[in-house]
Design brief:
Blueprint (H helix, E strand, L loop, with lengths): L7 H7 L20 H22 L1 H9 L4 H5 L5 E2 L3 H10 L14 E3 L2 E3 L3 H4 L18 E2 L2 E2 L4 H6 L3 H17 L7 H4 L23 H19 L5 H22 L4 H6 L3 H33 L2 H7 L1 H16 L2 H6 L1 H22 L4 H21 E11 L4 E6 L2 E3 L5 E7 L13 E4 L12 E6 L3 H10 L16 H19 L19 H4 L6 E12 L12 E7 L3 H16 L7 E8 L5 H15 L6 E8 L5 H8 L10 E5 L4 H13 L12 E7 L1 H12 L3 H7 L2 E7 L3
Parallel strand pairs: 13-14, 13-17, 14-15, 15-16, 17-18
Antiparallel strand pairs: 1-8, 2-3, 4-5, 6-7, 6-12, 7-11, 9-10, 9-12
Helix pairs in contact: 2-11, 10-11, 10-13, 11-13, 11-18, 13-15, 15-17, 17-18, 22-23, 25-26
Length: 734
Amino acid sequence: MSSNSTNTNSTAATGGTGPSSSGGKSSTSMVIPNNETFAALFGLSLLFVIVFFAVLTVPRLLASLHHQRGKAFFREGWLLKPKKSAAARAKDALRRSVFLPPAQPTRQPTLRRGLVTSPAPFANDIDYSDEGHGVPASASVNIEGGGARPMSVAEEEGKYPAHLRTLVRHHREVRSAGAPAHVPSTSTILRSLPFAPWFSRPFFPNHVDGASNGQACMYLLYAAGFIVVAFLMTSGTGNLKRSGWLVIVQTPLVVSLGSKNSLVGFFLGRGYEKINFFHRWMGQLMFIASLYHVIGYLILWIRRNVEARQSATHIEAWAAFAGFAMIGVFSLPVFRRSSYRLFFNAHWIGYLTYLIAICYHVEEALYWSLATFFILGLDYICRLFKSHFTTVTLTALPDFGATRIEVPRLTRGWKAGQHVRLRAFTFKLGLFAFAEAHPFTIASVSETRNGQGVILYVKSAGDWTKKLYDAASEPGKGGLENGNGTFLNFNASLASLETLGREEAAEGKGPALDDEKGLPAAATTSTRTLVGFGSGTTMKMVVEGPYGGPCGHMMRSSFTSSFVVAGGSGITYGLSVVEELIRDVEKLQSRTRLIGLYWIVTDPACLIPLLPTLTSLSNRVSYIPTLRFTLTVHYTRAVSPAFSAKVKSLPGGGLPRDIHLEPGRPNFKTAVEDFVKLKTNRLARGSDGLSGVLVGICGPGALARSVREGVDALDDDLRRSVGGVEIEEETFNW
């Protein structure tokens, strides 16, 4: 709202910008920095804070770069890529570590867990129990000091038959040599300090989506610094000018924190959704500062009776404030959550108006606007390179109440837990469906043996997702149901595998083992084939990504055990994380020895469409002597007769032995303690001990809070015994 007049007397009368009011030299001999310098120094201090937190991630970054000589770091997590050529796949096959040789078995294949598998020595000769992989059910658990007694390496190897101990010992040694180095997080290292656990606790205990104490401290420190700089060594009109400059100078930083391909996020090793909370807080304070700037000048002009003349003179100032106000008002949660399209359109219209108008209002703001446009341009260029216009296949999953989306062309380039943004080019989802980008977590892993592409499960919850489900459910095009809605393909596919096994048994030969998973070729058929996926509706979409993923350059395969919790459609995160962990173990590049997956749903029938995938994961684990996997499904709705009938009709007459159904919501204080104390803590320790427990969460805010409470309740001595406990969180509230 300040004037650009160079006449000192006139600017003093009107409250405009001039040499005497904007800074320069005061009436005393003391030199005071001008308002722009004060604001720039405050912005520079924020950059130093970002650099400080970025330095804390350097040890993990170096460990990630060192693992596989940095190839894994640059190969996944940045760009989605199409399937490799046949020559490239053949070259990779020669380099791939083969866990079990593709030799013919010495005995007939066994029908196990509803799928035909070749004889898996670790599955058939060893009894699985709740106390650890390969521990007989009759073995007792010694409790010392409230925890399970850790086994020695010799004791753990002794649980296996004599003819397998050498192989188990060799597998352990090879895995240890190729596994990534485990670098504890800063929070784990500082956990022993007084009051350190307090920072991870919620600031408002009864508020589901509230900030933690650590985030609240960051908010308060930033707000205090903002206020101090706004009023330091200035008064009157100077306060109004300083507040305006604080808004101008921080514009590039707040835009960088909110962009999808953020430079700040790159240096911190965090996705845009992990740093968006500070983008919102900065924007709110900047809007308050701009409001203070405008109201202050209006009061000043009214007192001097020049409000009409000054308001007419500063049209560009009103335009800049209108753009900023549009962003501030429509960013409120009531608009952001109820109408994202209104929020998004108000954002881009508002910041373009502000960035252009502010350059006419204050000439020196041109450089800050150009810096902001550079950041925006870089973000959109990256989005362009990350976007793929392709054909996807939609399949309605009635039991799950979701739509399965498969992108067969894109088969590599992402990490587990990352998400993509979809734009649909069809009028079935609305006239302007192409203008809406919707984020969904990827449920598959990169570079699978069968060439499976990106898999998404989209819950039918909002307007867009319901239209998507309706499009996938068009008569004659659904992959899982015919006209009367009966379940067709699942049992048929499993029955065909059973027939195949019987034919091979009659001929006296067994199926050849897949060189990556250790499964017969029939059992490694993609999930799409197993349950008839891929026969649904096709649609043109733009797939943009990947985004998000592990925080701070964390490598999940560097942890000894992983406790993964998924709520509802959050199972997409759980599936990708579990399969990636298993894949890394198969490649002998992982420290993981124990995986527990908890899935909380309302209806247990949601399990049916995913059962082939989960069965495949369970079978793959059965061929790995030093890895154990369990899945527990908690349901809150009564079991329907239809679901019971489907389960009984499965080959084998029920669910696989590693999949358990439990009624009611889980008590995560008990579940987390049991997983860490009675399972992870009992694993045999090598020379370097255990390398920590990773707790992954994907679901609503209330679910994440209950799991965090369970982790916070763990004893510090137990944490140190297992190498630390870290949380990776993907909630539905951003």
